[in-house]
Amino acid sequence: MNVIDLIDKEQRKESVPDFRSGDTVKVYSKVVEGGKERIQMFEGVVTVRKGGGAAEAVTVRRVAHGVGVEKSFLLHSPRVERIEVSKRGIVRRSRLYYLSTKIGKAARIKEKKATR
């Protein structure tokens, strides 16, 4: 292993769950307002998961008050407190850019049923 791989490996978090695009996730991130720090939750559908290693990023999309909002998060950033997977989605592609043009029921993603 070279030096860059060792640094990349020690920067990663082990607490990142297994999820992919189409899944609905809750991302708890730390927000600094003034001198105080609090945790803010952002729930939505994962549209893109890109990059690798410590630089891996995920884009989450939700509709708030009729307006589509997309936020990108670095998975291994110290600003991201934790990630919870709410629903597993059934999609056939890795990047769901087409969701930004869909409105209402057309933007829904089928849910994968849990098997025991």
3D structure, described in words:
The chain is mostly beta strands and 116 residues long. It has a domain of 81 residues: SH3 type barrels, CATH 2.30.30.790. The chain has a five-stranded antiparallel beta sheet with strand order 4-3-2-1-5, with no helix packed on it. The protein is globular, with a radius of gyration of 16 Å.
| CATH-defined topology of the domain at 22-102 | SH3 type barrels
Level-2 CATH architecture of the domain at 22-102: Roll
Q: What is the element string, with H for helices and E for strands?
A: HEEEEE
Cα shape: globular
CATH class of the domain at 22-102: Mainly Beta
Tell me the structural class.
Answer: mainly beta
Nearest-angstrom radius of gyration? 16 Å
